[in-house]
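#struct-help
A.M.: can someone run this one for me? Single chain, 131 residues.
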Amino acid sequence: MSEFIGFLQELLEKWGEVTARRMFGGHGLYHEGLMFAIVMDKRLYLKADTQNRPEFEALGLTPFTFPMKGRPVALSYWSAPDAIFDEPTEAVRWARSAWDAALRGHVAKAQAREKAKARLKKRYAPTGTVG
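D.P.: on it. Structure tokens below:
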């Protein structure tokens, strides 16, 4: 596995530093602190969302799935196209698209947390003074 991770890091080196962390029997790949890909069973899966998912679908690529309670669960990480392994420019383009999807998700979660905090603050704010 570490050989494949090293290959991916080298493939993406023109984009910038890519680090790997072990997780759930595989690895997460990170760029600038955001996880944009996972590696499971020597396969690369890239982060997808509503904006970049059509590109994966157009190539007939599929999401990473795993069984949970007897049912398959799909994650928002989709198979990377094989062509990127031969073309560093395409690899960087796909990685950047996945990183952008990860960033959009991160921003959306942060905004949702802030809205939830504001609702709680409003709900439990004092309504008047007791005198």
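A.M.: thanks! Residues 49 and 101 are 6 Å apart (CA to CA).
D.P.: also worth noting: The chain has one domain: 2-123.
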